[in-house]
Automatic annotation (TrEMBL):
Name this polypeptide is given: Cytochrome b5 heme-binding domain-containing protein
Family membership noted in the UniProt record: Belongs to the cytochrome b5 family. MAPR subfamily.
Presence of keyword tRNA-binding: no
SUPFAM superfamilies recorded: Cytochrome b5-like heme/steroid binding domain
Native organism: Kwoniella dendrophila CBS 6074
Length: 186
């Protein structure tokens, strides 16, 4: 079976990869995660992050909803979570768990509660797509759907209502999937 290349749906789709990824809502991050396992120059990595950020402007809303409902594009909730702990963890302790040492756990804090995301090195490990959130409280960036390092900070007081919703949805996403190992203390 053949059709005219210039008018086929295939051409339309492949000429606008970011749009497709946004519409499908899956493939772009999957490709991103997979490709970060091969060696990239810093410039290539920067380009990838920029592409993700641009696409996320459109995808953020859908992803927030997906996070809230636990929709099928996201990993399933955990069934074996431990009771939450409230051990004090300083910001500088937390910074050691940023994925740079593969022998250590990886932690991410949201609104001061520290989640153990060690099970997902392909997302949060060094050089991976979501490493920007590792070893810190990055509440503001999660609320903004931002992968920019300057947004990966604890103070989320600047978020507006919809960004607060997004942050709350991520919080609930993490609560369902990762053990809480402590709370950030000054
Ligand atoms: C084109 C834009 C994006 C797409 C298509 C996308 C897609 C996805 C997909 C499919 C997953 C699920 C992966 C899995 O469960 O294994 C995921 C996870 C996630 N995404 Fe994105 N993403 C995008 C951008 C962003 C941005 C800008 C942020 C910043 C807040 C973000 C934050 C996250 C987080 C925190 C997870 C949870 C990872 C986990 O712990 O399982 N994503 N994303
Ligand atoms: C919140 O801020 C974002 C980013 O500036 C904007 O797109 C969105 O419309 C704002 N939402 C509300 C409810 O103000």
């Amino acid at each position: 079976m053949s059709s005219s290349p210039s008018s086929s749906w295939y051409d339309t789709l492949t000429s606008t990869p970011v749009l497709i990824a946004t519409a499908v809502g899956v493939s772009f991050a999957a490709i991103f995660a997979a490709s970060s396992s091969s060696s990239k120059t810093p410039q290539q990595v920067k380009e990838q992050v920029k592409e993700i950020k641009n696409a996320a402007v459109n995808a953020g809303d859908a992803k927030g909803k997906a996070a809230q409902t636990g929709a099928s594009i996201m990993s399933a909730p955990a069934t074996d979570l431990a009771p939450p702990k409230d051990d004090p963890i300083s910001a500088s302790d937390l910074a050691q768990y940023d994925g740079s040492d593969p022998s250590k756990p990886i932690y991410i804090a949201i609104k001061g509660r520290v989640f153990d995301v060690t099970a997902k090195p392909e997302m949060y490990g060094q050089g991976r797509g979501y490493n920007v959130f590792a070893g810190k409280d990055a509440s503001k960036g999660l609320g903004m759907s931002s992968l920019d390092i300057k947004d990966a900070v604890p103070d989320y007081s600047s978020l507006n209502e919809s960004q607060m919703n997004t942050l709350n949805q991520w919080e609930s996403f993490f609560e369902k999937r990762y053990n809480i190992v402590g709370k950030v203390v000054p």
